[in-house]
Design goal:
Chain lengths: 144, 73
C-alpha cells in the first residue's frame, strides 16, 4: 500500500508494479484507475486518511488474495487532488484472469465501503465534506 | 484514562475519559451535543482494530477512534 501527497503519477506506479511482478508468472494483471471528474463546480477533491486502520484493512485483503494465489496492490492520494488527475489506483495480479476479474470487483467495492478515507469537495479553496456520497462503515452506530 | 479521537470531518478535539467498557464511552459521548448526532453513522476502532463489541473491556491508555462515513477513491 502506498500513500502520496497530492495526485498520483499513474503510469509510473503501474509500470513499477508490472516490473515488480513480472518474474512471478502471473497470467493476468488488472489495473483500476480512479480519476477526479469535473462536476458540481469543484476544482479538486481532498482526502483525509486514517493510516493505521487502512493498513489493517489492506493487509486483510493481501491475505485473502494470497489464498487465491493472487496479489493486490493500491495507492491513494492524501490532501488535494485536482480534477482530471488520479486519487486512487489499485491492481490485482493472478495466475488466471477469472480470479483477477472477480477480485478487482470485490476489492474496489470493499475499498469504497470500508477503507477509512474521507472525501471533501474543494470549491473556491474551501473543503466541504462529501457527506451525501459517503457510506457508514461496517458496524456503524455501535455507540448510538 | 481512555483517549477518544474523532477522525475525518467530525472536527472535534480528542477527549480523555474514564471508562471501563465501550458502553461507558457511548454513554458519555451521547451527552455531548456536537458529537451525539454523529454516533449513529460512525464505526469504532479500539487501538486501531475495528470492533462491534459494545461490552469490550477497556484499560487505561487505550485509544478509541470514531470513524464517520467514508468515501475513498
Amino acid at each position: 500500500m502506498e500513500l502520496y501527497q497530492g495526485a498520483l503519477d499513474v503510469p509510473t506506479i503501474f509500470n513499477r508494479w508490472l516490473e515488480e511482478e513480472n518474474s512471478f508468472n502471473y497470467g493476468a494483471y488488472i489495473p483500476f484507475v480512479g480519476t477526479i471528474r469535473e462536476e458540481n463546480g469543484i476544482e479538486a477533491l481532498s482526502f483525509d486518511i486514517y493510516e493505521p486502520v487502512l493498513q489493517k484493512w489492506f493487509d486483510a485483503w493481501v491475505e485473502k488474495a494470497e489464498k487465491l494465489g493472487a496479489k493486490v496492490k493500491m495507492a491513494h492520494a492524501i490532501g488535494d487532488v485536482p480534477v482530471h488527475t488520479s486519487s486512487y489506483v489499485s491492481a490485482v495480479f493472478s495466475p488466471k484472469r477469472r480470479v483477477a476479474l472477480e477480485l478487482i470487483d470485490e476489492f474496489v467495492e470493499d475499498f469504497k465501503a470500508n477503507a477509512p478515507i474521507w472525501k471533501y469537495d474543494v470549491i473556491n479553496g474551501k473543503r466541504i465534506y462529501a457527506e451525501d456520497r459517503s457510506t457508514p462503515m461496517s458496524g456503524s452506530g455501535l455507540l448510538a | 484514562m481512555i483517549k477518544v479521537e474523532f477522525l475525518g470531518p467530525i472536527g472535534e478535539e480528542n477527549l480523555e475519559l474514564h471508562a471501563n467498557t465501550l458502553s461507558d464511552v457511548a454513554t458519555q459521548l451521547q451527552e455531548i451535543e456536537t458529537i451525539a448526532p454523529w454516533l449513529s453513522k460512525c464505526a469504532v476502532a479500539v487501538n486501531d482494530q475495528m470492533t462491534s463489541d459494545l461490552s469490550m473491556v477497556l484499560k487505561s491508555g487505550d485509544k478509541v477512534s470514531i470513524l464517520p462515513p467514508v468515501c475513498g477513491g
